[in-house]
């Protein structure tokens, strides 16, 4: 969250808050699908990281 909070804030200033929230929700959904269908712990970690990046954009 600490790494992506400022970049997503700057992106929000450029393209608008609603679009950044939409992007965040799509990232979170993609991360959820990856984590749910993972066959290895590495893919679960990748899915959870993607969920985290989407969660900070949607907040």
Please give the structural blueprint.
Layout: H1 5-15, H2 17-36, H3 41-58
Helix pairs in contact: 1-2, 2-3
Word description of this protein:
- The protein has three helices and no strands.
- It starts with a helix and ends with a helix.
- It has helices at 5-15, 17-36, 41-58.
- Helix 1 crosses helix 2 and helix 2 (17-36) runs antiparallel to helix 3 (41-58).
- The chain is mainly alpha-helical and 59 residues long.
Secondary-structure class: mainly alpha
How many distinct beta strands?
Answer: 0
- Main sheet characteristics: none
Quickly count the helices.
3
Uncertain runs are none
In terms of DSSP E residues, the strand content is under 5%
Shape, please? elongated
In whole angstroms, the N-to-C terminal distance is 11 Å
Q: What's the Cα radius of gyration?
A: 12 Å
Average pLDDT, all residues = 89
The residue fraction in helices comes out at over 70%
Keywords:
59 residues; mainly alpha; 3 helices; 83% helix
What is this entry, summarized?
The protein is mainly α.
């Amino acid at each position: 969250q600490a790494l992506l909070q400022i970049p997503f804030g700057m992106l929000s200033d450029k393209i608008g808050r609603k679009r950044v929230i939409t992007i965040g929700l799509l990232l979170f959904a993609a991360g959820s699908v990856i984590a749910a269908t993972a066959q290895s712990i590495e893919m679960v970690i990748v899915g959870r990281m993607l969920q985290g990046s989407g969660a900070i954009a949607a907040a």
